Amino acid sequence: MAEPVLALDDLTVRFRLRRGELTAVDGVSFTVHRGETFGLVGESGSGKSVTARSIMRLIPEPPGEIPRGRIDFEGRDVLGLNDAEMRALRGRRIAMVFQEPMSALNPVFTVSAQISDALRTNLGLSKQEARERVVELLALVGIPSPRKRLDSYVHEFSGGMRQRVMLAMALSCNPTFLIADEPTTALDVTIQATILELITSMIERFGMSLIFITHNLGVVAHACDTIGVMYASHLVELGSKREIFRNPQHPYTVGLLNSIPRLDTQAKYLTPITGTVCNMMDPPQGCKFHPRCAHAMEICKREIPPMREVAPGHHAACHLHGRQ
Ligand code: SF4
User: Fold this and answer.
1) What is the pTM of this model?
2) pLDDT value of position 274
3) Which atom of ligand 1 is closest in space to residue 236's alpha carbon?
4) pLDDT of 1 higher than 80
5) Which residues partner with 23 through β-bridges?
6) Do residues 7 and 36 make contact, with C-beta atoms less than 8 angstroms apart?
């Protein structure tokens, strides 16, 4: 297997709010290798985006804090980098595509100005060189007549085109690692497929690694080699796409798979997961999924299940898989 690029070990992220303390990410560990596409899946509020933003050190402190854990990127401890080192890492080594380009891009600057800024700061290009590079980048992500769109503002683009602009900005400084945080969620279904195709083709073309965050298992089935499933701040299952889809071991993953339409089964109806996600300000003891789990046992209400290897390279955090 290729060398590890990013390794999270026991990452824990907490927020101190007026109403109390909220643990958004609790003891999350996984590794992404060079050229690997890693899908992080779960419902809203499961901790996926906070995990991604922690890697980029974009968690405001306070109210956020990382009391425990480690994030290693290309052999360096990200949590130990100073502001200047972090600025050098962002954009040049790791870039991020956000869910909503209208909030991530600046509405008062032209597209050219925003992308050029990153190019001039990070790569030292002149104004003219940066402008030419922006034309290339817009063409690369499929913006028609890119030279004519240089001085357009974000609101002059459609949703899909804005997401292309975001991708152009993310790719501008030739990063080796891309984090895409629900990049297709706000788009029409037909545009979603096009953007997904574009992201995967860019990843392949430039040999980048990818973390793709989504609540949609159908999307990771298309785009990812490895899948991590998060529920209520915990990583509950981790394995290859094949293992997760063919041999899911955590009842939450099974529930997610049963609740998406599939062409390869005869099932007439979808089976939703009963109940709702727990209140993260006051989560249940033990396994946080136990109030919704049809297999819950007494131990599930008391003890948080540890991650255990259930098959080579496939891990699940569930008491059904016995105690060590
Ligand atoms: Fe269900 Fe218990 Fe497994 Fe949690 S640990 S998923 S409650 S069986």
Assistant:
1) 0.90
2) 85
3) 6
4) no
5) 14
6) no
Pocket (CB within 6 angstroms of ligand 1): 250-251, 287, 289-290, 293, 295-297, 300, 305, 318-320
Q: Percentage of the chain surpassing pLDDT 70? A: 97
**Separation of CA 236 and ligand 1 centre (Å):** 10
Measure the CA–CA gap between 82 and 129, rounded to whole angstroms.
30
Span from the CA of 39 to the centroid of ligand 1 (angstroms): 22
The tokens of 100 are what?
């909503």
Collect contacts of 314-317 with beta carbons under 8 A, ≥24 apart: 314/238, 314/239, 314/240, 314/243, 314/244, 314/247, 314/249, 315/237, 315/238, 315/239, 316/236, 316/237, 316/238, 316/249, 316/250, 316/253, 317/234, 317/235, 317/236, 317/237, 317/250, 317/287
| Alpha carbon of 323 to ligand 1 centroid (Å) | 13
pLDDT digits (tens, 9 = 90+) for 83-95: 999 988 988 899 9
Q: How far apart are CA 201 and CA 222, in angstroms?
A: 12
Task: Report yes or no: 64 and 90 within 8 Å, Cβ to Cβ.
Answer: no
Residues 201-226: tens digit of each pLDDT: 888 888 899 999 998 888 888 889 99
Say what the pLDDT of residue 249 is.
95
In this structure, the number of other CB atoms found within 10 A of the CB of residue 264 comes to 6
- CB under 8 Å to 130, separation ≥6 — which residues? 115, 116, 119, 120
Structure tokens at 18: 């007026």
Helices (H), 110-188: 111-123, 127-140, 146-149, 159-171
**CA dist 230 to 27, 46, 213, 284, Å?**
11, 6, 10, 16
Three-state helix/strand/coil letters over 16-59: EECCEEEEEEEEEEEEEECCCEEEEECCCCCCHHHHHHHHCCCC
User: Ligand 1 centroid vs 289 CA: distance in angstroms?
Assistant: 6
Secondary structure class of 254 (helix, strand, coil): helix
Report which protein residue has its CA nearest ligand 1's atom 7: 290
